[in-house]
Design brief:
Structural class: alpha+beta
Distance between the termini: 53 Å
Strand content: 15-25%
Shape: globular
Number of helices: 9
Strand order of the largest sheet: 3-4-2-1-11-10
Number of strands: 11
Length: 367
């Protein structure tokens, strides 16, 4: 009786793993923008390991030389292959998009950015300040920062005299602190009246100017948005706007989207910008408190004018996000050494459709 119970329990465990892996693989293939489809864009790595565990479990305990066994094994191998295809580019097995710079980090063409979603109700201001002191960035970018966070980080103001503050209490506030001079700084509300973004020019110590865009669109999760259309539209709007700029461009922030999603891939195709994580690591920033469920939501993309000096995921700050630090070197004279991301034939059509649907939702006041 006990053996039969263990056998049934083992089959039940395998069934959960199999169905979970299949669901998480198939759902992102649907073109629907509803949250219950798009949420499955996130756990690619988790699905890979789930399918791998299911395969090992089944082969060890239940495999027989019959059609059903071969079907289960084939399905799991297919799932593992699909997830590996998405994951491998973000490991050392994948090719890098961004080359290492040979310059000294103290060179006047370098720029260091610290990006942190602070979690609005988090009050561990000193932990965030400690991470900033650890990395000594030229620019600090915070998202989910309200007026309390503005007060909590006020000690930065002496060292970072150039600032753009958007202290909102709706979890979409953002702040930009800069040691480097800013020009033409703007706070824009591209689609929704309560979701800001920032664009500005930044003067490097070398005297050259580069462009910086900061975004934090609304995620497709219950309680925030029923679908991803407005998030996707804002991301692609920024891509189109940024690609018009001459010279170096950096786009950073909490995209509320993973690096391997169709929308983020479209962002790269529209903008032509590079992802320094490719060939180096996932740099998972969310969820800081749940190790089994982590994925990269906070991003830095840049034009091919920059090379990489350093990139790290920072330690915990009391937020549900880890911060990210990156130091880039502005080397426009060597930009041809790096190949920008090329658009597909239907890239502009996809971009147009994405923007139109997002704008239509915004006009209709969809949540």
């Amino acid at each position: 009786m006990k053996i039969r119970f263990l056998h049934i329990a083992g089959l039940f465990f395998f069934g959960i793993l199999l169905m979970g892996a299949l669901l998480a693989t198939l759902m992102p293939l649907f073109p629907s923008k509803e949250w219950y489809f798009r949420i499955f864009d996130y756990p690619r790595l988790q699905t890979f390991f789930m399918a791998g565990l299911a395969l090992l479990w089944y082969v060890r305990f239940f495999f027989k030389r019959n059609f059903r066994s071969y079907l289960f094994v084939s399905l799991l191998v297919l799932v593992i292959g699909i997830q590996a295809y998405k994951a491998i580019p973000y490991t050392i097995l994948g090719p890098t998009q961004v080359l290492w710079s040979e310059k000294d980090p103290a060179d006047t063409t370098s720029i260091g950015l610290f990006i942190c979603n602070v979690l609005q109700h988090n009050t561990a201001y000193d932990r965030v300040l400690g991470r900033i002191n650890e990395y000594q960035p030229d620019i600090v970018i915070t998202t989910e920062s309200d007026s309390s966070w503005q007060r909590g980080l006020s000690s930065l103001e002496a060292r970072y005299p150039h600032r753009v503050a958007v202290p909102l209490g709706n979890t979409y506030g953002m702040h930009l602190y800069s040691r480097l001079p800013l020009a033409d700084a703007q706070v824009r509300y591209l689609l929704e009246p309560d979701i800001p973004s920032i664009r500005t020019r930044v003067r490097l110590r070398s005297g050259e100017w580069v462009h910086l865009f900061i975004v934090h669109p609304r995620p497709p999760v219950p309680g925030e948005a029923s679908d991803s259309r407005e998030r996707d539209a804002e991301i692609i709007l920024v891509a189109r706007e940024a690609r018009k700029e001459k010279g170096g461009v950096i786009v950073a922030g909490d995209f509320n989207d993973v690096a391997w999603s169709e929308t983020t891939e479209l962002f790269q195709e529209v903008s032509g910008y590079l992802d320094p994580r490719l060939g180096r690591g996932f740099y998972n920033t969310f969820h800081a408190g749940v190790p089994l469920f982590r994925w990269p939501l906070d991003h830095i993309f840049h034009s091919k004018h920059f090379k990489l000096m350093r990139m790290e995921r920072g330690g915990k700050t009391g937020s549900d996000h880890f911060p990210v630090f990156i130091r880039l070197s502005y080397e426009p004279e060597e930009k041809e050494e790096q190949e920008e991301v090329k658009p597909e034939e239907d890239t502009e059509q996809k971009a147009n459709e994405t923007i139109q649907k997002g704008k239509a939702d915004a006009r209709n006041g969809k949540e």
